[in-house]
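Practice record 12: protein with pyridoxal-5'-phosphate.
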Amino acid sequence: MHYTPSPRDPNAPPVRINLLSDTQTRPTAAMREAMARAEVGDEQIGDDPSVNLLCERVADLLGKEAAVFMPSGTMCNVAATLVHCRPGDEILAHETAHIIAREGGAHAALGGFQITPLRGADGQFSPDTLRKALHPRTRYQPPQVLVSVEQTANIGGGTIWKKAALNEIVQIAIAAGLATHMDGARLLNACVATGIAARDMAAGWDSAWIDFSKGLGAPIGGVIAGSREFVDQVWRWKQRLGGSMRQAGICAAACTFALDHHVDRLADDHANARALARGLAQITGIEVQEPETNLVFFKPDGAGITGEKMVAALRERGVLLAVMDGRIRACTHLDVTASMIGETVALVREIVRGA
Ligand SMILES: Cc1ncc(COP(=O)(O)O)c(C=O)c1O
């Protein structure tokens, strides 16, 4: 079994420009200092002051009663569905959702849930599509209990769900008796791009979380928020799944540092993504999806080269990215500069010329 190309492939030149994912960021020197200074305790018994502070900050940021620190975004999603659903229940999500395609089947394996994939452009389903997918409670059909969205939609191109659509989905869910879950792996990207506060984006959603190990640049962690009762139940699953930690304040301090120093700068990543898309679009035969945040999806096939070959040619030149769902995904983040973007565009042009 393997995953996307490793930055440490001994048979390839060193990676100079890492556009593989915003998970590739390294903690900065200042973040490491904040981690070293962190006051810590036993997180599992609620005694780590740095974790408690982070949870209070995120609960407030998302406008919820309480929050809990988790080792990963995946565990946020898994614990949330385990709280919201019972075996045999149905979850509705976009067909490209991380919970369907990239969590190792956790929701089926651990919860016995089935996820109905909804269609729609750019990783988003319309309120109408959700409406049409709902069915009455009968003895034949699985009980529909949860609707989940990704803000931003990763495989959709880092697209931003409009606030009006989010509101409408919440209204439909309430009317049908469904709970609502927001996978906010890149929620703050959406907030910075639109100027809409995180608490407004998450308003009405029963559970919402943010990831710190992506654009925010921390090494580990997600924080999931909701009502006090929801968070109590998430804690039970966190314990059951082996996600309770000890002196986790070292990691929580990195996350709090990120909230203070790495949120506004997400705008730089978005500007770099736009510059990359503009540069690529000027190369004949390259098809680029207009980025809304920090993800740029493009296809070079029209220039006479496949995505796989383009990725391999770039890797030989020290640029790391990958093909994802049939297109190349380039991700801008903390460790990507404007000059790296210029260099990447120049290299793609050179490869296309030689193709
Ligand atoms: C939309 C989305 N949800 C969830 C996750 C899972 O987060 P983590 O890698 O922290 O487990 C990711 C990670 O890429 C993601 O993109």
